[in-house]
Amino acid sequence: MNIxxxxxxxxxxxxxxxxxxxxxxxxxxAKIYIESGLxxxxxxxxxxxxxxxxxxxxxxxxxxxxxxxxxxxxxxELNEVKSLKKGCIHISFxxxxxxxxxxxxxxxxxxxxxxxxxxxRSTRAQKMDALSSQASLAGYAAVIMAANNMNKIFPMxxxxxxTIQPSKxxxxxxxxxxxxxxxxxxxxxxxxxxxxxxxxxxxxxxSLGAKFVEIDLGETGQTEQGYAKELTKEQLKxxxxxxxxxxxxxxxxxxxxxxFGRKAPIIITKDMIMAMKPGSIVVDLAxxxxxxxxxxxxxxxxxxxxxxxIALRNMPGRVAYHASQMYSNNLYNLIEEFWNNExxxxxxxMEDEIIAQTLITHNGKIIHPxxxxxx
Length: 375
Known about the structure:
Blueprint: E1 2-5, H1 19-27, E2 31-35, H2 46-51, E3 55-57, H3 60-65, E4 69-71, E5 89-92, H4 100-108, E6 112-115, H5 130-149, E7 157-159, E8 162-164, E9 168-172, H6 176-187, E10 191-195, H7 202-207, E11 211-213, H8 233-248, E12 252-255, H9 270-275, E13 281-284, E14 300-304, E15 307-311, H10 320-337, E16 339-340, E17 345-346, H11 353-358, E18 359-362, E19 365-366
Parallel strand pairs: 1-2, 1-4, 2-3, 4-5, 5-6, 9-10, 9-12, 10-11, 12-13, 13-15
Antiparallel strand pairs: 6-18, 7-8, 14-15, 16-17, 18-19
Helix pairs in contact: 1-10, 5-6, 5-10
């Protein structure tokens, strides 16, 4: 079975698969073809991939056209879909909620497209959960980014010249990214408070040594994917009024609130920014789905009333080597789970819950129930 791995777009510093996982797939009987220069962004040469057993191909169109399986990180360009082999399996993030034209093109081409966003958050699928692995690194990188942009230090420091009080960090959203942000800020010595609409998050926050902020919003909960459910207008107003006070007392605010498949809610408003101390930092980790911070500009660091608002997309790409390593492991674990060692092929087991939840297009149709009627 031919597995091909093309280069990512120039704006993407991460790599879909590292040589060590390529070598494991080769041992399973797969033929691996990579595009020349695949690992350049993280300083991995073609020679290392070749030593792992991969074949190097410079012609991208040829690479795609011979693939039984295509492994990517980012979604394919629309104009490249026609280069894919009919009936091939394509595995990557697909951004399916925002790409109806791409889904139609993949279906028309007969591609079986697996979306990494839909890996279920179950014990069995945990090792394949790329959203979680990348979110964890985003949480880490957000804290480091905040620390680099502050005019203060994070930890308490007792010196002959006096005692420096620890910085105060407020994390909004205690999912995977939020919990890693909490843990990283704590390691750096900050005093950390965190808030989440899901009561179930309280124990996780406390276990990391942070204070859990409780705001009575009435009935809240989480989706099957583990995301917070969308709040009503009344709940949002009540939440914002309470959050404003915590923001005003914080040196760093990190927002991670996202609703799966929908635009991220605005959590930090302009009046909250105006109430914060000059020199404070706000990091918006939800910027790729619309952002939590009013006035945040994608891929920019802007200053409002002396407060820096950091809204850089692809935060995991700031630590590209380890982000690549984790995504590479996620892909390998998915392939291994459905690899038939006797036939040396990847089997699409349609009745399996992982395939059933991640397969978007198959046999010329959009088969995923969340998109079949929309496209």
